[in-house]
Amino acid sequence: MKQVYALALVTALMTSCNKDETPLPPVDQQPEMIYTDLQNRELKFQQAQLIDLNHDELVDIGFSTWYIGDPIEKKDEVLFFAGSYVHSNLLVNEANGSPAFNEGEVIPISNYPGHNWYQVGQVEMALKNIPATGLPYWEGNWKSVSHKYLAVQVVVAGKRYNGWIEVSFDTVGEKLILHKAAISKEAEKPVVAGE
User: Fold this and answer.
1) Which domain of life is it from (predicted)?
2) Rounded to whole angstroms, how far apart are CA atoms 192 and 195?
3) Which of 103, 97, 92 is nearest to 153 (CA)?
4) What is the pTM of this model?
5) In whole angstroms, how far apart are CA 189 and each of 13, 24, 159, 163, 183?
6) What is the DSSP secondary structure assignment for residue 53, as one 8-state letter?
7) Concatenated DSSP letters for 154-183?
8) Within 13 Å of residue 126, how many CA atoms lie on the same side as its CB?
9) Helix (H) or strand (E) holding 10
10) Which of 7, 25, 34, 127 is 20 to 30 A off residue 48, Cα-Cα?
């Protein structure tokens, strides 16, 4: 039975940030992976996309949008975000950002410099600002990415399985595009983004 946990419950406080600046070791051999063709799924305003990375009929990562009215700043915002659940993790920094990995970069099992793996975490990918006066504009680390990789982990029986989701963002079309995803079949192993 599928268990979907509401992304709106993502209010976990992020306390300390372990800034380990040691370089990431290379991956000797990519572990065997489970690949999912996401067929360029699009996420637009008021939509959601849910992904089961390891094909166990549980949603591992969800993507959605929020509309935020800000009367003090006199603007509205549309937030595109990714969320993890109680059995999955995202790499998150103090500003709710996550690194956009390039193909070939190592996604570590442990924390990444300036980012921690968070269960029930939220990553703010792109934000459209709609001011009361003036033109709309975009913010966020993922607002102009093309085929970059969001690092993910799935936890099964206390063991972490690393993976990635290939993402692009189109500000003109106002949509997030999900290309493909992969998750390791081997626990506690770093993986290479895009491989």
Assistant:
1) Bacteria
2) 6
3) 92
4) 0.85
5) 27, 13, 10, 10, 11
6) T
7) EEETTEEEEEEEEEEEETTTTEEEEEEEEE
8) 22
9) none
10) 34
Q: Is 29 exposed, middle or buried (0-12, 13-18, 19+ CB in 10 A)?
A: exposed
How far apart are the C-alpha atoms of 194 and 168, rounded to whole Å?
13
The amino acid at 40: N
Q: How far apart are the two ends of the chain, measured CA to CA in Å?
A: 30
Token output for 14: 């992020």
What local confidence, expressed as pLDDT, does residue 27 receive? Answer: 63
Amino acid 188: pLDDT: 97
44 and 135 Cβ atoms separated by less than 8 Å = no
Of 150, 138, 149, the closest CA to residue 175 belongs to 138
Q: Show the tokens assigned to 22.
A: 């040691």
Q: Strands (DSSP E) along 48-94, which ranges? A: 48-51, 61-70, 75-84, 88-92
Give the start-to-end residue ranges of the domains of the chain: 30-192
Tens-digit pLDDT string for the chain (195 aa): 333 333 333 333 233 333 344 445 566 789 999 999 999 999 999 999 999 999 999 999 999 999 999 899 899 999 999 999 999 999 999 999 999 999 999 999 999 999 999 999 999 999 999 999 999 999 999 999 999 999 999 999 999 999 999 999 999 999 999 999 999 999 999 999 999
Q: Please compute, for residue 112, the number of CA atoms within 13 A of its CA located in the half-sphere on the CB side.
A: 25
